[in-house]
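ok, trying the design again with the full structure, not the truncated one.
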């Protein structure tokens, strides 16, 4: 069971002061957060890709490369790479470079992305949304397997018998399929035998169990060994010494950020009632004290079957010291509880 974190390197206004820190400062803070996550024994840290003012992470590989030079064990991944509007050759080269700096700890999570700003920015037509992703994923997977590439496509210039460098330290640079929960993308990941990352950020997380079963069924039908596959969840949350402290610190910036997105996408208002349901044992928000968050992760493992949990913290801008404390609690207290419980299941032969 792997446990880690993700971030979009948010730069929303502070809900108390109204001030917004610079992109540069937030990027530097995130590097410090990754260094701490490594120090406290967490397994993975992911940085998302966005191209808008309220997120500073338009170049995740650069941030991860800076962190790679200052860490020893933690795996470093995009969360996600918006592959449809990027060049797979450059994505592969960038993450192979991160793999070199980290000595074999880089990963790519490839997804369509939940925002569309990158399409007009890089000159792509949204009508080609699905076709772009499928074609570019095919090329990226070829690049991970072959040093010399022969490839023809519709949306990118052909590659006639050319080498792509640097090659990664790992035998194969890991590529994950990131999904918001559509059966098609889940089945595709299984069919390709690729690890799957699910964004579980609303409703009941236990509903995703059917998608995980679909994933393993598709993998098995395609001839892949399910025991070699990994399913991750990416979920919002924050940990503090007490539940009240976690709520008081996390709700206001989360409400602000969710309502900004809600106005853009036509969602209803994110209220305290929404928040309280989500942080209950049945909800998808992993917010509270150590015991509560550990219990919720254990339930997610048992009922859904995830083998990697990634806490997305924060959602809206929060003081850096609060985020650092949450990371410390996740690594030093939550993760050991979860891992110990899973060891107990294994020793007792219990299903998991």
């Amino acid at each position: 069971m792997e446990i880690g974190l993700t971030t979009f390197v948010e730069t929303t206004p502070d809900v108390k002061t109204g001030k917004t820190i610079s992109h540069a400062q937030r990027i530097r803070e995130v590097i410090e957060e990754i260094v701490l996550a490594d120090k406290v024994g967490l397994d993975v840290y992911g940085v998302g890709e966005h191209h808008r003012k309220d997120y500073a992470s338009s170049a995740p590989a650069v941030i991860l490369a800076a962190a790679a030079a200052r860490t020893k064990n933690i795996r470093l991944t995009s969360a996600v790479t918006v592959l449809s509007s990027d060049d797979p050759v450059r994505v592969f080269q960038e993450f192979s470079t991160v793999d070199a700096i980290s000595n074999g700890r880089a990963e790519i999570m490839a997804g369509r992305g939940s925002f569309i700003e990158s399409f007009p920015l890089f000159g792509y037509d949204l009508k080609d949304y699905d076709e772009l992703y499928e074609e570019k994923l095919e090329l990226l997977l070829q690049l991970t397997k072959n040093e010399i590439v022969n490839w023809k496509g519709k949306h990118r210039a052909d590659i006639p018998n050319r080498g792509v460098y640097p090659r990664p330290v790992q035998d194969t640079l890991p590529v994950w399929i990131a999904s918001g929960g559509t059966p098609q993308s889940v089945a595709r990941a299984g069919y390709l035998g690729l690890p799957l990352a699910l964004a579980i950020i609303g409703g009941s997380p236990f509903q995703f169990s059917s998608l995980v079963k679909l994933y393993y069924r598709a993998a098995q039908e395609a001839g892949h060994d399910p025991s070699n596959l990994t399913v991750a969840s990416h979920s919002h949350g924050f940990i503090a010494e007490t539940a009240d402290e976690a709520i008081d610190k996390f709700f206001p910036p989360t409400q602000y950020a969710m309502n900004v997105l809600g106005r853009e996408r036509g969602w209803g208002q994110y209220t305290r009632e929404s928040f309280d349901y989500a942080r209950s044992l049945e909800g998808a928000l992993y917010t509270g004290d150590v015991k509560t968050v550990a219990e919720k992760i254990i339930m997610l493992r048992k009922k859904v079957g995830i083998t990697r949990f990634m806490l997305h913290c924060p959602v809206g801008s929060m003081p850096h010291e609060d985020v650092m404390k949450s990371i410390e609690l996740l690594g030093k207290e939550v993760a050991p509880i979860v891992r110990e419980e899973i060891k107990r299941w294994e020793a007792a032969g219990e299903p998991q």
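Keeping the full-length input from now on. The two ends are 11 Å apart (CA to CA).
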